[in-house]
Every structure is written in structure tokens, then in C-alpha cells.
Write a structure and sequence with these properties.
By secondary structure, this protein is α/β, with parallel strands linked by helices. 59% of the residues lie in helices and 7% in strands. It contains 26 helices and 10 strands. The protein has an 8-stranded mixed beta sheet, sandwiched between helices. Helix 1 packs across helix 11 and helix 15 packs across helix 23. The longest helix is centred in the C-terminal third of the chain and has 53 residues. It starts with a helix and ends in an 8-residue tail after the last helix.
Length: 752
């Protein structure tokens, strides 16, 4: 009796024709299971697997439609919201012979993904498990969650398809539901149906205005042209007398490209009286057979028509999306493989392999350091200097050029030099060539180069530390925090060991310059030549003074002589002084001219100068009653301006000698300091960094702790490994698809 009733209810159930959906839909189901079990959520969400989302308002008949497609009661029911978590329902057609080839094999069964390997043959138990799993995720007081429940039902009475039963749209919160429950459910529904890969099964009751259907309103937001929306009109049997839903089914009210299917569900009384699905489907067929209005749209009526339509459309939809999906899976699999490779294999369990890994990391780091310094890095930058190029910039553009810009006489006035000359002479009178003052001043000037020389070594040391930090990131040592920190500390110690002798050598180089003032150096200007140059300069000054006394402008007169003087060895030192004297002469000439215009004369200026000198002298002693009274000298005494030619020659000679010898010492230090820095700091990296790292870090009891990874890295590797395995399994499943279809007797292009 049961077999005959099934035959009358589901024509073709015994003789199931193989369709494209029999191969494609299980493939998508398998991909969904692969990604869900791997915990990768469609590998980032961009692999949108084709599926059908069932959308409708609360009490629109969604649950009845799903149960009618399955042919069994298995969904929770009640007066309030029942579907509180998305239910992914995978229907798989199993032929009779497959289900009964083994005496103990069940004909129909269900299996939950969260309880793998456990077969449910009682559909009442499936309903209870759905309720229990829902409560585990949302509580027992009507809470809602977007976490999926996945259920596979295998039966000879179903057509292969995948449906997602979403919570019904509700407006009034009950129980533990939040005040914005309507918005949350709408957002959850939209998160599914907004994907182009998702078909929408929009369920609307026939006894309401279809234009105001919640399901169609939501579907129009994401599918305004109705290209992937299938309309399901329920409750045709309770429409007002004399009305029908033919206009709905024809698409005359709200057009949909995929059309509408009308169904008659069990009423609440049928459910209370435990009327079976088979009886309900027989009653549905009887309703359409005896209702004349539906005769012309009979192919759009009934649960069986809905099943075949949905299965066919889903199969076609999958076939359209499968090539792009296959390409995406292949691409993402390659990306996951690269990501997994970049994360490495993690710490090996074998101590020998651990030691080998540490040695490999240390060797790679030391080799990378050397490459970076000598400019052989595998990834050279084109946007900025890095590595050894920065060190060369420090040595040449910062240190050498900075040293060359240093002029010991720049801040020295003639009074300063004369003061130094007198101080160096002590109690003795100053001779024409002040040797002692020259040596004192030149040593002071050389000492001023000590700080920049030492600073050069420290800057290079810091640049090497910068290279170390960059390499630790590039070598991916950050995956092992202890190893990275230990390598950085050991490198820092090694560089400090090089900085100490470098600074000592630099200080010695400066001390060597101070130890002996070699006035016999071939490049030194010498006393006699310095005297001749000073005499020429003195003549120029006297000539300028005479010109100023006549009120003439000396610009043209001085320019030629200054150029001649600038061509000398010390032109860069003396030219600035000549220019300053030129400006002073101008000011004096203008002052003299002003006095003439005001009625004064140059004689007045001389008288004023004599008076000033007499006042200074009176400040040191005085005459009282024909007796000289001496006074205490002031706390700070500075030599006066040179008054005689001899005094001015002493100043000029000292300035020339100082500039000449300082240039020689500066050149020596500009050449030898970079060499010392390169020898003790930079080149030592190539000579001994790797050996230092091995001696410091390669200890059997230290190796395991060095390879301890950051928990974040371990989590990333696990996620990447799961992703790669899932994508590999997905690629293998797609690759085996043509063989599966051939075994089922369906061609890849064999759509119904």
C-alpha cells in the first residue's frame, strides 16, 4: 500500500532520471562541508558557493514547504518563531537499489555536521536535535543566532538540492530577543541573499497582497531584476471564495524571471492530527486537479513541480558558476600555499632538526647582513638608500664634508689671536714669528675634530644596528620571538665589540696629530712664505686705509688683489678676513665722509682715538701731586687691536700658519677615520658575525627555547594549513566531477 501511494504521489520516484543536479549539487554540498569542517568559512567569504536561501515572514509556510520537499516532518514548530538559526538542508537523492543493497542500510536517514558519523533514521529525533542544537547556540528563550546548523537528508523520495532555511521576518521581540530583532533578522537574511551565487526562494502566502510581501521586498533589494528569485505562493486553499492566485503564478503582479510555483500546505489542524506528508501531497494534487482556474498553470502548481523546478534551476545555476568557482579555488589554493610556506613548518620535534634549523637561521641572517653591507641584497630598493649605501653616505657626505667645512679661524677675531699670542709668550716679549702661540692654537683646532670623528663611528654603529633590525624582519625571525631577540642582542654585543676599538683607534689618530706638529710637512705653507703673504696683506690694508682717508670707494681696488690672494694655498681661510676688513674700511670711510659733511675732519677722528686711549690708560694708573698711582688690573683683560705693523704681522702670520696646518691634519683624519671605521666595524661583520652568533646562541640546551613561536604565529599556521587542505580537497572534488557525472550517466552539459 505504501509503495502504491508513493507511486501516485511522486511519479518517477522509482525511475529517477539522472540530472545534472545529481552530480553538481552533491559537489557543492561536499565543498560546503569541506570548508565548514576546516573552519575557514568559505576561505574568507570570496568563494561564494551556490545555494538556495528560503526567505519568508513568520507563519508564511516556509517550514511546511521544506517538509513537503523532504516528505517528512522534521522541523520544530510552535506558535512563535521556530527557526532561530540558519539551517543548511542538503537533500541528496539515493536510488532504491543503493539504499537497500545491504540489509542493514536505512532507506532514509539524516546526518548533522556537528555530529559526524551519527546516522538519524527517526525524523522525530532529527527534530529534537535541531531544537537542542538551536538552544545550545541561542538559549531557550527565543534568542536568534547567525551560526549555521548543517543537516544532510538522504532519501529516494527527494530531489538533490541544497536549501538554507532562514529565520522568519518578525517585528515584535519576544523572550530574550533584542529590541532590534527585525533589523537583525533582515541583516542576517541579506547577508545570504546579497551574494550573486545565492538563489532566493521567496515564500509568500496567497491570502495577502503579493506586492507587500516581506520576502519579495527583501529579494528586490539585492535582485531588482528578479534574475535569481523563485517565488513560492502558499496557502492557495484558504483564499477568499471566488478568488485565485493565477495572476500571481503568471507573474502578472510582481514579475520574476524564474517564475512562481503555487503549493498547498498542511493546515495547523492537519499537523495536530498528525496527517502525514504523503497524505497532504495527495490532497494537494486533488485540490489542483479539481480547481478549474489552475488548469492552465498546472505545471506551476504542486510540491512536486516545486521540487523539480528548484532542483533544475539550482543545477543550472551551479553549472554557470562552476568554472569561475574552480578558478577561484585554484588561485586561492596557490595563495594559501605561499602563505603556508612563508610561515614555515614550525619547530621540529627532533632535536637534531631543531639544531639544524637554528644553524640555518643564523647562517641566513649573517649572509643577509653581509649582502646588505656590500650591496648584493636580493631586494634592492629604488626609492631610498639602504644598507651599505647609507654607511657610505655617512662616511663621505656627512663626516668628510662636515669636516671639510670646519674652519678653526672662522670664529677668531684679530683680538682673539693677539690675546693667544700674548698668553703663549707669558712674561716674555713676542717675537715676529710667534711659534708657541701657533702650536697652542693649532692643537686647539685639532681637538675640535675629535668629537665629529668619534661621532662618525657611532653613527655607523647605529646604521649597522638598523640593518640588523631590518634583517630580522626580512628573515622572518619574528616568528620566533626569543630567537629574534637573541640574534638582535648578540649582534648588538658584536657591534659594540667593534665600536670600542674603533673609537680607541680614532682617539689615537687624533692624539697622533696632537703629539707632533710637523712644520716640515711638504704641504705646509712655512714661516717665510707665511710672512711674505702677511706682508702683502698688510700692504693691502694700508692701501685701503689710505683710500678710506680720501673718501674713495675701494671696491674696485680690493677685488683684484683679493683674487690674487685667494689663489694662494690658504685663500679659503684668508679671503673671509679680507672681505671683513673691506667692509670695516667701508664703514670707516663712510664715517670719515660723514664727519666731513658735518664739518669735521679725519684729524678729529685721530684726536678722538687718542683721547680714548688716554682714558684707557688713566683707568690703569693716575697722577696725583706728581706721583704715579697704580691701580688693580681688571678681572678680564683682552689684548688690544694691533697698533703697529709688527703686531698686525704677528696676527696675520699666525692666522695663515694655523689655517695651513689645520688643512693638513683635517685631510689626514678625513682619510684615516673612515678607514678605521670600516676596519673595526663594517668589515668585521663579514669576518666574524656568523661565528659570534654560533658561539653565543648555538647551545643544545638553548636551541628548543629559541624556536618557541609566538602563539599568534602558530594560530596563523594552523589556519593557513586548514585553508590549504580545504582548498586542496575542494580542487580534488571539482577535478573528480566529470568522472562522477559520467558514472551517473549525465554529461557535463546535460541540463534539463
Amino acid at each position: 500500500a505504501d509503495d502504491s501511494s508513493r507511486s501516485s504521489i511522486m511519479p518517477g520516484a522509482h525511475i529517477h532520471q539522472n540530472t545534472l543536479g545529481d552530480g553538481l549539487v552533491p559537489l557543492i554540498n561536499k565543498l560546503q562541508d569541506i570548508f565548514t569542517q576546516a573552519g575557514v568559512d568559505n576561505v574568507g567569504g570570496d568563494l561564494e558557493l551556490p545555494q538556495i536561501a528560503v526567505v519568508g515572514s513568520q507563519s508564511s509556510g516556509k517550514s511546511s514547504v521544506l517538509e513537503a520537499l523532504v516528505g517528512r516532518d522534521f522541523l520544530p514548530r510552535g506558535p512563535d518563531i521556530c527557526t532561530r538559526r540558519p539551517l543548511v538542508l542538503q537533500l541528496v537523492h539515493t536510488p532504491y537499489q543503493h539504499a537497500s543493497h545491504h540489509n542493514q542500510a536505512p532507506m532514509e536517514w539524516g546526518e548533522f555536521l556537528h555530529r559526524p558519523g551519527e546516522i538519524f533514521t527517526e525524523f522525530e529525533a532529527i527534530r529534537e536535535e535541531i531544537e537542542c542544537e538551536t538552544n545550545r547556540g541561542t538559549g531557550t528563550n527565543k534568542g536568534v543566532s547567525d551560526k549555521q546548523i548543517r543537516l544532510k537528508i538522504c532519501s529516494p523520495h527527494v530531489l538533490t538540492m541544497t536549501l538554507v532555511d532562514l529565520p522568519g521576518i518578525t517585528r515584535v521581540p519576544v523572550g530574550d530577543q533584542p529590541a532590534d530583532i527585525e533589523k537583525r533578522i533582515r541583516d542576517m537574511i541579506l547577508s545570504y541573499i546579497k551574494r550573486e551565487s545565492c538563489l532566493i526562494l521567496a515564500v509568500s502566502p496567497a491570502n495577502t497582497d503579493l506586492a507587500n510581501s516581506d520576502a519579495l521586498t527583501l529579494s528586490r533589494l539585492v535582485d531588482p531584476d528578479g534574475k535569481r528569485t523563485i517565488g513560492v505562493v502558499t496557502k492557495l486553499d484558504i483564499m477568499d471564495r471566488g478568488t485565485d492566485a493565477v495572476a500571481y503564478l503568471r507573474g502578472e503582479v510582481v514579475p520574476l524571471r524564474l517564475g512562481y510555483i503555487g503549493v498547498v500546505n498542511r493546515c495547523q489542524q492537519d499537523i495536530a492530527q498528525r496527517r502525514s506528508i504523503r497524505e497532504a501531497r495527495a490532497s494537494e494534487a486533488e485540490f489542483f486537479r479539481h480547481h478549474p482556474a489552475y488548469a492552465e498553470v498546472i505545471d506551476k502548481c504542486g510540491t512536486e513541480a516545486l521540487g523539480w523546478t528548484v532542483s533544475r534551476i539550482l543545477a543550472d545555476h551551479i553549472a554557470d558558476l562552476l568554472p569561475a568557482l574552480s578558478d577561484k579555488i585554484t588561485t586561492r589554493r596557490s595563495e594559501a600555499q605561499r602563505e603556508l610556506k612563508s610561515l614555515g613548518e614550525g619547530r621540529p620535534e627532533d632535536p637534531g632538526r631543531q639544531s639544524a634549523m637554528v644553524l640555518e637561521k643564523l647562517h641566513g641572517y649573517a649572509a643577509g647582513f653581509t649582502k646588505s653591507v656590500v650591496g648584493k641584497s636580493d631586494d634592492l630598493s629604488t626609492s631610498s638608500l639602504e644598507g651599505g649605501a647609507r654607511i657610505h653616505f655617512v662616511l663621505q657626505d656627512i663626516f668628510v664634508k662636515g669636516l671639510e667645512s670646519l674652519d678653526p679661524t672662522r670664529a677668531m677675531s684679530e683680538e682673539d689671536i693677539r690675546t693667544a699670542i700674548q698668553n703663549a709668550a707669558g712674561t716674555k716679549a713676542v717675537l715676529l714669528l710667534p711659534d708657541d702661540s701657533f702650536e697652542v692654537l693649532v692643537k686647539q683646532a685639532i681637538r675640535k675634530m675629535s668629537d665629529p670623528c668619534v661621532k662618525c663611528a657611532r653613527i655607523v654603529h647605529d646604521e649597522l644596528g638598523r640593518i640588523a633590525r631590518t634583517l630580522i624582519n626580512q628573515q622572518d625571525l619574528q616568528r620566533y620571538p626569543r630567537l629574534a631577540q637573541s640574534v638582535e642582542d648578540a649582534t648588538r654585543d658584536f657591534l659594540v665589540e667593534g665600536l670600542v676599538p674603533a673609537e680607541s683607534m680614532i682617539n689615537s689618530l687624533v692624539e697622533c696629530q696632537l703629539a707632533h706638529i710637523n712644520t716640515s710637512h711638504p704641504d705646509f705653507v712655512g714661516g717665510s712664505q707665511a710672512l711674505r703673504m702677511a706682508q702683502q696683506e698688510l700692504k693691502r690694508r694700508r692701501g685701503a686705509s689710505a683710500s678710506a682717508g680720501t673718501g674713495a670707494d675701494d671696491d674696485g681696488m680690493m677685488s683684484g688683489d683679493e683674487n690674487d690672494f685667494g689663489e694662494d694655498v690658504l685663500a679659503d681661510v684668508t679671503q673671509r678676513n679680507a672681505l671683513q676688513r673691506k667692509r670695516d674700511a667701508k664703514n670707516k670711510a663712510k664715517t670719515a665722509l660723514g664727519r666731513k659733511l658735518s664739518g669735521g675732519s679725519s684729524v678729529d677722528a685721530s684726536i678722538d682715538k687718542v683721547k680714548d686711549k688716554e682714558n684707557d690708560v688713566k683707568a690703569l694708573y693716575s697722577h696725583e701731586n706728581g706721583v704715579v698711582s697704580l691701580k688693580e688690573p681688571p678681572g678680564r683683560i683682552q689684548a688690544s687691536e694691533p697698533e703697529t705693523d709688527e703686531e698686525l704681522l704677528q696676527v696675520l702670520v699666525t692666522r695663515i700658519l694655523l689655517g695651513s696646518y689645520f688643512a693638513i691634519s683635517r685631510g689626514v683624519l678625513a682619510d684615516t677615520v673612515p678607514k678605521a671605521v670600516m676596519h673595526f666595524l663594517v668589515n668585521s661583520v663579514q669576518r666574524g658575525l656568523q661565528q659570534h652568533l654560533i658561539q653565543s646562541l648555538y647551545h643544545p640546551n638553548l636551541v628548543p627555547s629559541l624556536l618557541t613561536e609566538h602563539p599568534e604565529t602558530e594560530a596563523k599556521r594552523l589556519a593557513a594549513r586548514n585553508k590549504y587542505k580545504a582548498l586542496s580537497a575542494a580542487a580534488a572534488a571539482i577535478g573528480a566531477m566529470p568522472a562522477d557525472l559520467a558514472a551517473a550517466g549525465v554529461g557535463v552539459g546535460g541540463r534539463r
